[in-house]
């Protein structure tokens, strides 16, 4: 038996996903230790959200498996879910509820206190607008509320799907700070992003997906050493190869 202490928090082993004959992911393997941050990068349709949904247990792999803290979703859903906080890429908020009511609802489901709810709102800078209806929020404010929701229970692993989408530069920097704080408190973060400077500033490791495959992965330090001044942007361009297969228009959002 392997030593438990040596186990990574997240282990993805040879994972593949096929839906209706279309291969969305193939042969993905990665590990993430406690207190580590991994950014998933890649063009539109590369498979980032699909991989995050597999980690969350929202999709099941066609091959391979995912373990969080040694647990598999298929064997122990409740304990597995308790290890995770999730920010989806798209969410329809209940109409008519304020930010406070929305977050309080999520907190109650998890048996969390009002104090923790307040704290989470403060962490994402929404305390002052807590009594405003979420449907009147801007995209960036809704993103911050979703982020607060993912952090509410302070889970060991945060899984965030494009968390900086819609954030202005100030909140982009705040996101980087929050991720660094979470890491310093021992949380691990797995997130997808098109914002390579954010990945460069907040991640320990980066995985580039293309056409459902991990075409390049390494620590940020290794990639920066390899690509020099071009940084992760050069790594991204390189990872797309000549085909730019995932985006017929050839536009890589960064
Ligand atoms: N439920 C599904 N059924 C069939 N195909 C799907 C399904 N979900 C996603 N796909 C396809 O899988 C591929 C990967 O999609 P995914 O959303 O994971 O990409 P992504 O890297 O997150 O893209 P983006 O950067 O545009 O958000 C795409 O070709 C998409 O059309």
Shape: globular
What is the total domain count? 2
- Beginning-to-end CA distance, first to last residue: 43 Å
What is the CATH architecture annotation of the largest domain? 3-Layer(aba) Sandwich
Helix/strand-derived category reads alpha/beta
Tell me the major beta sheet.
Answer: 6 strands, mixed
What is the percentage of strand-forming residues? 15-25%
Largest beta sheet: strand ordering: 5-6-7-3-8-9
How many helical elements?
9
Q: Percent helix among the residues?
A: 25-40%
Chemical compounds bound to the protein: adenosine-5'-triphosphate
**Which parts are unreliable, with pLDDT below 50 for 5 consecutive residues or more?**
242-254
Mean pLDDT score: 90
How many distinct beta strands?
Answer: 9
CATH class of the largest domain: Alpha Beta
The CATH homology group name of the largest domain: P-loop containing nucleotide triphosphate hydrolases
Q: What is the string of helix and strand elements?
A: EEEHEHEHHHEHEHEEHH
| CA-based gyration radius | 18 Å
CATH topology label of the largest domain: Rossmann fold
